[in-house]
């Protein structure tokens, strides 16, 4: 258990959305300079705009259901907006959350947040600022793929036992597709959208971040990937900060055109109980990865974050069968083979 003295303060429900979750000190710095504080403000605006855009698209596809919204704040500064749509016509569960949080974290949470963190660092609490948007969209139809996307900006100040150490910052995130059945044209469309976003900034990004995605969403105890990939990056700070802010914005803006056309094609396809059972088994893999390996989930749990927001990525239902093996050559087998042996889709 994490001592409450070094966990993030528990959230307080709010009745309305504030114009910003930034502290007043950040607002002042933003007005006076174009320093990293203005990156905080512009990143917050970007993720809140993206949340609105994605939620509007999801509600339009569903044709009647609406998101439940919870707004919350923290005594030490920051807060968030959680939106969830459940049991709709198209969506089993769709969550789109934003958070802008200040706090301090223990060393184990710092290591969970940053893969390259120094394991030998002194055990002092680390002050941090984190802002991000995180979404998982689980459709009902087994031929319609699940989508996950997450984009975040992170800063840490010097640990309390290392005064004078420089502030560190980095960007992270990605968008990846997790179908139960493969439709080649869908996967190609999705990966082309990711490549297009990457190519606007660096021609090496897509290949690099596609491999990173395949490597990250790996269920080690199964020897397979969670899905069919996309892009993923983390701890990214070796480029100009303005460029990376623009890159994260481009990636977030590509979510709707990359994904919604696929859902429109697949949401009404007829399916059998066998198709649904296979979707449930793949959802079980989703749960396994998120609870065992996902760094965002680990960080949230280790810092006493808002549990409903942390676990919103989990589907309403999933299934585990003992020693289930799809028949070789079947459509289910083809999906599993692609998860075990990542492919180049474009």
From TrEMBL:
Q: Which GO terms describe its biological process?
A: chlorophyll biosynthetic process; protoporphyrinogen IX biosynthetic process
PROSITE patterns, per database record = COPROGEN_OXIDASE (PS01021)
Alphabetic keyword roster:
Chlorophyll biosynthesis, Chloroplast, Heme biosynthesis, Oxidoreductase, Plastid, Porphyrin biosynthesis, Transit peptide
- EC identifiers of the protein: 1.3.3.3
Q: GO terms for molecular function, please?
A: coproporphyrinogen oxidase activity
**Gene Ontology CC:** chloroplast stroma
Q: Report if keyword Protein transport is assigned.
A: no
Q: Where in the cell is it found?
A: Plastid, Chloroplast
Q: Which reactions fall under this protein's catalytic activity?
A: coproporphyrinogen III + O2 + 2 H(+) = protoporphyrinogen IX + 2 CO2 + 2 H2O
| Pathway annotation | Porphyrin-containing compound metabolism; protoporphyrin-IX biosynthesis; protoporphyrinogen-IX from coproporphyrinogen-III (O2 route): step 1/1
Looking at its record, which EC class is this enzyme? oxidoreductase
Q: Report whether Disulfide bond shows up as a keyword of the record.
A: no
Q: Which domain of life is it from?
A: Eukaryota
Assembly with partners or alone: Homodimer.
Q: Which family does it belong to?
A: Belongs to the aerobic coproporphyrinogen-III oxidase family.
**Name of this protein:** coproporphyrinogen oxidase
Organism field: Carya illinoinensis
């Amino acid at each position: 258990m994490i001592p409450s003295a070094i966990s993030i303060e528990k959230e307080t429900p709010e009745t309305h959305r504030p114009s910003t979750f930034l502290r007043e000190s950040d607002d002042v710095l933003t007005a006076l300079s174009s320093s990293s504080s203005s990156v905080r403000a512009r990143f917050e605006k970007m993720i809140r705009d993206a949340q609105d855009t994605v939620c509007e698209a999801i509600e339009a596809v569903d044709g009647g259901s609406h998101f439940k919204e919870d707004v919350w704040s923290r005594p030490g500064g920051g807060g968030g907006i959680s939106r969830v749509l459940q049991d709709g016509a198209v969506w089993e569960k769709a969550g789109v959350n934003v958070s802008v949080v200040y706090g301090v974290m223990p060393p184990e949470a710092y290591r969970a947040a940053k893969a390259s963190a120094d394991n030998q660092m002194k055990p002092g609490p680390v002050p941090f600022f984190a802002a991000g948007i995180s979404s998982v969209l689980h459709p009902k139809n087994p031929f319609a793929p699940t989508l996950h996307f997450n984009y975040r900006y992170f800063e840490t100040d010097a640990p309390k036992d290392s005064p004078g150490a420089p502030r560190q910052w980095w960007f992270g995130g990605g968008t990846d597709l997790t179908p139960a059945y493969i439709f080649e044209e869908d996967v190609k469309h999705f990966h082309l959208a990711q490549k297009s976003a990457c190519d606007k900034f660096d021609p090496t990004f897509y290949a690099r971040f596609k491999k990173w995605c395949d490597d990250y969403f790996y269920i080690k105890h199964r020897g397979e990937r969670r899905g069919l990939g996309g892009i993923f990056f983390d701890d990214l700070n070796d480029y100009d900060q303005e460029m990376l802010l623009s890159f994260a914005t481009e990636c977030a803006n590509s979510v709707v055109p990359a994904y919604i056309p696929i859902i429109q094609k697949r949401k009404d396809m007829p399916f059998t109980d066998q198709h649904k059972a296979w979707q449930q088994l793949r959802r079980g893999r989703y749960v396994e990865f998120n609870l065992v390996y996902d760094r965002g989930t680990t960080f949230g749990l280790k810092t006493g974050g808002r549990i409903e927001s942390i676990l919103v990525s989990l589907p309403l239902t999933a299934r585990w069968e003992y020693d289930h093996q799809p028949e070789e050559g079947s459509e289910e087998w083809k999906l599993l083979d692609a998860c075990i042996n990542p492919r180049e889709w474009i």
